[in-house]
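Quick one - first record:
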Amino acid sequence: MRKLIQVSFLVLFSFAVVYSGLCDDSKNASLKKTTINFATNANCRVHVDAMIPLLEAKGYKVKLTNFDDPISIDVATEEGSVDANYYQHLPYMNNFNRSRGGHLVMVKPYLLGSVMGMFSKKHKSIDALPDGGTVTLAMDGSNKDRAIRMMRDYGLLTLRETPASGMYTLIDIIGNPKKLKFVELDLYQLPRSMDEVDASIFSAIYLISAGQDLSSAICFSKDDVDHPIGVVVRAENENAQWLKDLMEAMASDQCRKVAKEAYKGGYSILF
């Protein structure tokens, strides 16, 4: 019996050693990751392009994918086909996690501040907006909430108490002195809608990315600090060495200079 116990112990011990070795190998493989699948969109591409050579100099290979659909980029990150993405503000990511059961985190330091504005090709001020005028705004929850709060902040709307979800929708408007009409559109359609409506509310960077300036702005948001933009990964990768190296490159002096020159007020620079 004693010999049987000893043999059993040796077998279990050997298995534990092998298993431990496999875990260490898996851990080491994660630490030694050298190819990074990175996703962005047209608005943030200039910053990413400036980062890539710095990361490559550290021995990494970056496979870059551009997305047009803001939902797809987060889905790809959540599913693992993308290691990290860079395009969205924090409330947008949080809303994705809530609505889709996601596990995404935004890594510090945050890099940019999202500047939202009300833009018009027909009117120069809030007072000039006509009674019964039409305003377009985003259909997604976080940006729609932000646009509605912005109009409240400038006296265009009165809202009921903050809803349980934390995000306002059009049904929460209880005062609309100018009797403005609202049309919800996809984010990328908002700048194009300016030719047909009295005003549109969207992120200022869309105009900069289209080669335009911000002279069509009627007003700008007052909540940029609450809408930081940063690199987003799955929670399990938050402390990975490759991510630390990536963030060092993203927040470098070289990238800061490029971002400041390219964004021209479309984003505020936070790093």
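second record:
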Amino acid sequence: MFGQCGTHVINCSLVIINSTAIERNTSAIGLLFPGGGGAGKFDFQKVVELYITSILILLGIFGNITSIVVLRKDRERKNALFLLQALALADGLYLVVAIFRYPLKYLLPSHEKFIAIQPIVFPLLKTFQTVTIWMIVIVTIDRYTCVCRPLLAPCLFNQKTRRGYTLALFVAGFLYNIPRFLDSCVYKWYNPCTGAVVSRMSYRESFSGPYYYNIYIDIMYIVLLYVIPLSTLIFMNCRLVQAIR
């Protein structure tokens, strides 16, 4: 079954679990004894993820749907506003997937059912996050080109190229996050003393090495989703302000 890694038996006197998987996914206490850490902390997390996050997600989805509807009504600037519609779509998809990542854990009757879908939900969340961030960059480049490089704008950003950029970003976002669809699965730990079975998503053994985590999860994630996009946005927005002045 996809996302299932098997069952491990916990020794009552000595518990030995892959420390790398624990550190990167959850604490040892939370892994073996779900709900540990105090009721106050758990209640606060529930309030944030179930109520506050749900309200923000619903407002965001409503706002994105409204934006797409309003932008589609503008026939005169249909091509120019296409990228904004694509951005609203990507952000809306991210918020829809976020429902299955955060509020759903408190709505399902079984914790195991929630954990079982996370090997798919989490990679999808990261995929649409990647697409949304780079759609913002493309929208900014479009505005920058129209204002600061007007002679190049018709060549770089027209109806055909805008659609091509959008399709390429969605495909690239999925391809970049393919390792996330493969690196994790659901482990089950069985305690013969209590008869309890604990399910938790962890990295597969083949992906638990330091190279994958340090290079792909840390370095590439920070550079491609933070450093380059933010640097590009800062530079182009500063040039836009100067050009407008």
